[in-house]
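User: Structure with 6-O-phosphono-alpha-D-glucopyranose, tokens only please.
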Amino acid sequence: MPVEQIKDRITLKHPDGASAEILFYGATVVSWKARDNTSSTPSERLFVSGKAALNGSKPVRGGIPVVFPCFGPPEHPDHARLSQHGFARNEVWNFEKIVMDNDAGVSVRLNLLPRPSIAAVYDKPFELAFVVTLSEHQLSTDLHVANPSRTSALEFQALLHTYIRAPAQEVLIQPLSGRRYVDKVDNAAIKEENRGAVDVRHFTDSVYEEVPDKIIVSWPNGGLVVKKTNFPNVTIWNPGAEAGSRIGDMEPGGWERFVCVEPGFVRGFKQLSPGETWIGQQVLSLNE
Ligand SMILES: O=P(O)(O)OC[C@H]1O[C@H](O)[C@H](O)[C@@H](O)[C@@H]1O
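Assistant:
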């Protein structure tokens, strides 16, 4: 059975051994196992903290949390009552349907619609869907945002907060050179990246602008490619030891085991006219 529903989550299984697990809570992808050229068995590609809450009590520290409609603390008046990174990562999504199930891949669609718990803090009409597609060496996650209003625009930010399992002391991310970025660990100073490849050996929280749609994340004997569509920005985050050890749900030393590479639309706000739909896509690929 390539799609299995177990209480609070669904598991996708590919005939070649790859698998993915999605919690209904936040539509958070909490596991992606796949083989690359060098491995004979599928191995875990995402990082989830051993101290992450997976019971819906708080957003998952790891995997691929969905950030909507604001990134970071709210800045837009429509978002004033929301908490950091919005509500999508801490609401239970609906499992809508299996979109595809064949040898090429298996794909499911979840959705999130207005409900009282959201209306209490956010009163704009919206429709969200999240389509997760697993193929042999690839995991694709598409966030659909629709504006069902007949009269007013929807203004939002959206981002996929992907925790890639990687040795933080050795990982390199490129190409970012020449790109402007907001350095959130230096008073939100606007800088221009001059490194050929960016590392996270020190506390890093940088929001890059106008990033190419293919990002290479590599380390000795490993790596993957992050491809994106309609997400102009990429945030690179790793808290390092000092800030990392202050995060309550971070496992000891967890910051050594991941880099967050987060495609998003987070500089300014995406404006969606009444009746319009926007899709932001991230594709994680091995063997490229
Ligand atoms: O602790 P969280 O709310 O999950 O946020 C974790 C991190 O998310 C993003 O990467 C932001 O750029 C960081 O500033 C933030 O610390």
